[in-house]
Fold:
Amino acid sequence: MIASLGQPPRWLWQASFSTGVWFEGPGSQLMVRAAAASYHDLIGASVGVAQVGGEGFIGLKDTDADGGLRAIFRIPFIGVGAGAEYDFLDADLNFLVTAQTPVLRGGILAHGGMLRLDWYPTESGGFTLGITVPLWNRFAGRGRPTSAHATGVSEFPKPKPYVVRDVPLEAALDTLRLSATWVRRLTTPFLDQDGRTLAIADQRNAEYLSELQAHLALRSAEAEVRHFHRSMDRAFALASGSEQAGALLADSARRILLDAVLLPYDRQLGRKQWREELADLVVAARGRFGGSVAGSRLVAPGRVESVLYVFQELTGAIETERARMSTEWDDPRLVWLPLQYALLPEDHDTQVELDALIEQATEETFTDGNQVLYAAGLQFPWELRETIEAARDYHVLMIHDFPAVTDAGVLDSASLGQVLVYLDALRARVGEYDSVGTLPVYFIFLDQHYYALRKGRVWMDVLQDPLHASSDLPNATPAQVAMLAESLRALRIAVGRSVVLQAQARQYGDAWLRNRVKVQVNITNRADQSFWSGGLFSSFFAYPDNLLRDHRKVALFDVSERDPYRGYAVYTGMGVGELYLGPGWEDRSIVVRGPVLVALKDEVRALLRAQGLPADEIPLPLRAEPTAAGDPVPPAGARWDQFDARALQLTNGTGFQSKSIDVAKALLYSLMPPGSVIKIPDSLWNSFLYGGLLAGACLRGATVLIIAPAAANAPSAGTLTMSRSWEFLSRLLAARQALAIPIAAAGGDLHLGLYALAPDEQGMASRVESWNRNVSATPFLRTLMPFLPDAWPDLTGTPQLGLAASTIAPKLHQKVQFLGTRSMWNAIAAAPEWPGFMRVYLEHREATYAVNAPATLSRELPESLQVLAAQIYARTRGVPGAASYALVGSQNQDNRGMFMDGEVDLLFTGAESLVPLVDLIFIEGTATWLTDQASLDRLVPPPGAYMRRWGRVAKDQL
Amino acid sequence: MIGKCASAVLLVAGALATPARAQMGEAHFGAIGSFGTGSAYQWGAGLTASYAPGRLAYMGLRWIYYAGSTDRRADSTGSWDVTTRAQLFGADLGLEYPLGAVELVGSVTMGAMRFWQGADQLGVSGVVPLEEVGTSFVLAPTVMVEFRTGPLVMMPQVAYYFAGSPDFRWPVGHDGWALSLMIVLPLETHRITY
Structure:
């Protein structure tokens, strides 16, 4: 039997055991009770605001047998409830207040076990205290990590410090300490200032920027880094008594600092830590450095103490900056220690160096020989269908939206279509079963919050048991019911006709057959009140893990360790459903083949394990196949030989698990060399850490283009979300203005744009027209991209079938980023292929624009884009310092994505990284570029003081 | 001397009010002066401490000593000078809303009112004065306005005390309006947990 998580129970059964005292009349009576209960969530279980249930209990009150029934209303979010209890012994109805808490993450005494207090305030003041344990819910108390923190207790005793009295050395160290502060401030400027009023907050921000400006007038950001390292060299030289030895010692210190302090600490970005301090890392680093000094014979015995003192003070200075940043940002999860403390600018200005640092920081490994096809709009549903039909071993769909009903209250026809694709694929594979002997296993992973919110049970009931499911769907038209009925009937006929399946079913039983011919439904991140974090006491005033969701959107099939090219994957920002189809939804996907997908398969397995499935129940197709170190990787095939994308799979585990996407982004934003071009449009732009790092990149000479949606074009346009977006853009706008001189002096630039497109009146032609108009009126775009034509190439003339004027402003939802060095940029800018590249891109956009566009057009154009990208990319080969990255996936540029949600991204380099670039150029050409606060306020209205406060309080959840 | 002390206090107050840069709330410490219309209250003064998480909610503690009033009462035993006083030990829970330059706080004060009553019989020597103490629950819906003056925050407020009767020998006015003024030192705070 193939194990899966299935769907959460509609009713949650519990047993409880309690004892207490009843005060009534003279004296008191001891109570002992055992109860059984069942609860049902009235509103989405993950929300946890309304739950009703009934309980029955038996027991003793003093020496009398006791029993009764209860009806209770609970608010699981805060763990309290109230209700009525009818006691058979007293024949009385009592008012009951109840509270429960798990005490420990995951529960006490049993998985999901809760400490429960019942209080009878009106009758006697009596109470009972006991334990409640879940029944028939094997994943309760198991579906989250037992610790909410990344680090534990200290492993080292407090070291005895070195003490050296040397005035010149102290002066050098003071210079080093001061420089460490400025390196931090210039790498991650803090722009999220607050105050009693917006005016005070803005004034503080202005003062902060003014301080930066004043310092930058004396020393640039890059010069500050060099100054820091010179100070380090000098301190070690003074301590060792030799310039030469000092330089070597400083080199050694940098290596150890990077390996043993900075990267291990930064690797925890976005995660809670029990011990925020660097103490343990520093002790280990000091031990390592001491060993290297002793072994090097560079230092005379009488000076060893001084040298070790310098390293101690160096690490102390970094700890001081860590503490300052933690206080300043009001959140240790946002502390990113600048790697510039250990790296000189020339240490991170090539593709090889950057790749190595990313691997070291994320502890993930780039793989070569991958192919990445860039897909726009409608291509995702087409590709998803292809993957399901092509799967022979297994298919995984990890998605966050699979709605049954549209906002208009009718059945979601796109989701129905997706269900039919599954049923048809099952039918086809069953039809082949007698000759092939295997059936693929289909897995769906859907987060419970979205599953409940969008009535996903309607579809999952069908997919989970298609041999017995009903076709009578709620909100469906007769035609839709008939379509589903026909598909189910065809599948059942195919099963009936399969001689082998019938023979096996006779041996293994009907349950086996139902388990085999189905989609393995896995509803993840189930509402579980036994997991919470951040409470003042136990789970009280805490926030439950139910707020933490899986935001990953990816499809994968047949990839294996032995043959990673057997299948492929689609990474996307989209969900399943009508909402995502057509010109109203600006989104992208990538189709990925190659060995990088083995890591994605690992993540699927890790997800099942994290949700509580035991290792020995992991379905066979998802288990890691043993491979020997010398096993050759199968060739990718001649068709793809010209592409060799170097790719890295990045994952943010849901909740308190590791966050490698955060780490990779922070590293790239903080280390891309001067002159780099960084383009980041996003639908949820409110991470001040990412924004600060990018502002820091501009100070080092990078050109950064940020695009966020205008209020009318935001997929998530909630008041609080837009409030934070407005604050974010306002602060970056202020930084752009205040720091214009030092940014320009460094050769950098910061541009802030809004995706503010009106509904398309003439399909893609409207957007092309918008691009032509905007680009001619936006000089910086031409300066940055001299290869742009005066006007976008003419539309291809492909008739857009049934195209009507859209009434919906398109929503920016794509999560695609491009980062390239100046060498790369200059090399590709001269390529003559740009007009053709842009023309093919536009054809691709047209082909994937309208809902009713024919799917057959879709594959050739992305492949043509790859060919052209490879031709342009060829110009970068051999160019010193040429490096580029594209990042595509599910994570937004927000705190929620950094801290809370599960996310998946693919970071890739090579020719394929240029295809997203042409897309971003098109988006940038249609954006409204902000020049002042008024231009922002017009498109993203400023929040009122009250909502601004709420936005700040809720900033981690937005 | 007094001038120096005042300067020092203001300096300390100014230093304490130095802004944290990522404000997520505000703590208040200060004094409160009050006038209650109930005969047990009249003029009073006390201390207060509060916290406004996100400056959206308001949680506080207050203690006020009311000097009360003295009335002449008569019964079958003679005439008495009856003095009634009260102390409020209250916890405030409320919501804060910005209104231009001021903040509006709607809150409820809940807690205990400790009444004290003493009586001296008139014209009779050698009689031991009578004393009674009673404590009752008090609930007081309150509206406060908060505005800043220099490093301090002024919080005028109006409340209505619903306090239980202490059941003294001589009945006392235990319900009624109260006008108060808090003068507090605001301290910006970071979030408590994350």
Summary: The longest strand of chain A covers residues 28-41. The interface with chain B takes residues 190, 192-197, 200-201, 204, 208, 272, 327-333, 534-536, 541-542, 944-946, 949-950, 952-953, 956 of chain A (CB under 8 Å). Chain A has a mean pLDDT of 91. The first helix of chain A runs from residue 167 to 187.
